[in-house]
Write a structure and sequence with these properties.
217 residues, alpha/beta, three-stranded antiparallel beta sheet, binds BIS(adenosine)-5'-pentaphosphate, binds magnesium ion
């Protein structure tokens, strides 16, 4: 049976890093709403232009377009076959409710929802050193995961960039929005008995070991 998982957690906790490890080692399809929005921005689509106006301020993109965009991805043959690890979606209780309706229609259920937990100061340190590949999306960190050659991706040799929303003011706003809008999503899944909290303070391998502990094989 393919795995169906959700990673919930504040900005910079390591959702994208864990989702990439899960794709590599478990074969599940990572679906990151942030990554999809940034690709739309890069391609300068209407959705990208709309999303940019929110993302640059650290605000959430409106539920309607976000839900539509993510449910479309969930209906792909690849996702049906491989399963999924959702990263950054659902981020509001309304998005979680819409996902529930979709999963019910597809007659599938979630295996578990993992809440990654760290202190704000760790988040700020992780975001301060982050760089991402402009082509393949590989995530690096100046001290925790430096690329072999400065400014270039180990995997595809493309340029690494710092995200525009990784500045102190926007990070503060993203943390505020997480507490207000996304922390209730964790409670929504806790009430359904699906939530597992994982301490995400260790290095990426330690967190991966915790995250995957007890997952159905
Ligand atoms: P999104 O792209 O989802 O950003 P985010 O939630 O703020 O999370 P990040 O991607 O910043 O961090 P991450 O947890 O993935 O950490 P990473 O693995 O990179 O969303 C961006 C924006 O899009 C939102 O603000 C919003 O505007 C919009 N949006 C997205 N989804 C939406 C939705 N559903 N509804 C509405 N709007 C939406 O790691 C961070 C750094 O730490 C890296 O450098 C990494 O190398 C390092 N690192 C990772 N793990 C470890 C570790 N264990 N130890 C040491 N270093 C580590
Ligand atoms: Mg991410």
């Amino acid at each position: 049976m393919p795995l169906r998982l959700i990673l919930v957690g504040p900005p910079g906790v390591g959702k994208g890093t864990q989702a990439a490890l899960m794709e590599e080692r478990l074969g599940v399809k990572p679906l990151s709403s942030g990554v999809i929005f940034r690709a739309e921005i890069e391609a300068d689509t209407d959705l990208g232009q709309l999303a940019k106006s929110y993302i640059d301020r650290g605000e959430l993109v409106p539920n309607g377009v976000t839900i539509q965009m993510m449910l479309k991805r969930l209906r792909s043959d690849e996702v049906r076959k491989k399963g999924f690890v959702l990263d950054g979606f659902p981020r509001t209780v309304r998005q979680a409710e819409a996902l529930d309706v979709e999963l019910e229609t597809e007659d599938v259920s979630l295996d578990c929802v993992i809440l990654l937990v760290v202190d704000d100061e760790v988040v700020v340190r992780r975001l301060a050193g982050r760089m991402g590949c402009t082509k393949c999306g590989e995530i690096y960190h100046s001290s925790n995961k430096p690329p072999r050659r400065e400014g270039l991706c180990d995997k595809c040799n493309s340029q690494l960039l710092v995200r525009k929303d990784d500045n102190p003011e926007t990070i503060r706003e993203r943390l505020r929005v997480f507490r207000e809008e996304t922390a209730p999503v964790a409670e929504y899944y806790r009430a359904k008995g699906l939530l597992r909290e994982v301490d995400a303070a260790g290095d990426a391998e330690e967190v991966y070991a915790e995250v995957t502990k007890g997952l159905p094989s």
